[in-house]
Amino acid sequence: MKAFAIVLRGEGIFLKSEPEPAVGFFATRKVWARDESEAVLNAKKSILKEWQADGFQRENLGEMPRLRVDTVTELKGLSSVTRRIPNRGFIFFPENK
After folding, report:
1. Which pLDDT tens digit goes with each residue over 28-49?
2. Rounded to whole angstroms, how far apart are CA atoms 10 and 12?
3. Model confidence, pTM
4. Distance between CA atoms of residues 28 and 70, nearest Å
5. Enclosing domain of residue 62
């Protein structure tokens, strides 16, 4: 198994927030997988599970997030610092950003 860092972009959402509504997000997940395609699938599953568990889907006035790959990086060595980085969360962005 190899370690990967996957950055995904979620689009199609609409969350009310100030000063502007959020229409998308970026999320990074560290995953273990046999290859890049399995890593992307695992990252997408993780993000959608968190999206629903943390209540974002209830607040979302848009669609389920459409996830697309931004970057895939194979992590050759996991340092103790990398292992401690949280593996959850979203960075939301407004329209036209």
Report:
1. 999 999 999 999 999 999 999 9
2. 7
3. 0.87
4. 10
5. 2-94
